[in-house]
Amino acid sequence: GDSVTQMEGPVTLSEEAFLTINCTYTATGYPSLFWYVQYPGEGLQLLLKATKADDKGSNKGFEATYRKETTSFHLEKGSVQVSDSAVYFCALSDPQGGSEKLVFGKGTKLTVNP
Amino acid sequence: DTAVSQTPKYLVTQMGNDKSIKCEQNLGHDTMYWYKQDSKKFLKIMFSYNNKELIINETVPNRFSPKSPDKAHLNLHINSLELGDSAVYFCASSPRLAGLSTDTQYFGPGTRLTVL
Q1: Alpha-carbon distance A52 to A15, whole Å?
Q2: Cβ separation of A34 and B55 shorter than 8 Å?
Q3: Each residue of A68-113: pLDDT tens digit?
Q4: pLDDT given at position B52
């Protein structure tokens, strides 16, 4: 079945550091890929998405490129801020796979210190 | 205006009690979901409804019963609460079934359930 694997956390960085959170996937068809973010005490919200190979999703300084050859969708940001402290979830939808649900990774907690 | 709202935000109750969590979305979406998030932040889908029809029913104890009176509401009733039910429960909605589309899911703020 479809699955998403993302790097184990927690990740702790200093402000203005470079961030990478790795995400790889297995899917039957040609999935769409998502990054959701959960700020403390809140529900998840979409950060960015990409729907086909080589697409780059971007938002709030975060970027992720859909790499079909490596089945990856790594999240990056050049300079993190304290306000980026949150839990980040990689997810996929795979219509050809026949699953009616989003498949989420286990989440990676990011803490950014001033 | 809140897109997906849940009540209550916090729920503390004794083992064996019955409780309900309500969810409403004002986005006009056809599909709604319930997720359970454990203490390690792992997110697990419990149910999804599309146009008031049950689509996904994961391996959830039958003490959990969702009810969708209309497309804008999906409530969760839990009977005979157990310690292991303590978690944060999130409601979400999307225009179509998220797994079959590129649609974004919109999440509510969560209900933190504590069973004593």
Answers
A1: 32
A2: no
A3: 999 999 999 999 999 999 999 999 988 766 667 888 999 999 999 9
A4: 84
> Strand A11-14 and strand A108-113: pairing?
parallel
Residue A104 with chain B: CB contacts under 8 Å: 43
Q: Got the DSSP string for A72-100?
A: B--EEESS--GGG-EEEEEEEE-GGGT--
- Contact criterion met (CB < 8 Å) for B42 and A106: yes
Q: Which helix (H) or strand (E) is B5 found in, with range?
A: strand B4-7
Which two structure tokens, joined as six digits, stand for B1?
Answer: 């205006």
User: What number of CA atoms fall less than 13 Å from residue B90's CA on the CB side?
Assistant: 22
Q: Among A26, A23, A40, which Cα is nearest to A89's?
A: A23
Is A100–B48 a contact, with Cβ atoms under 8 angstroms apart? yes
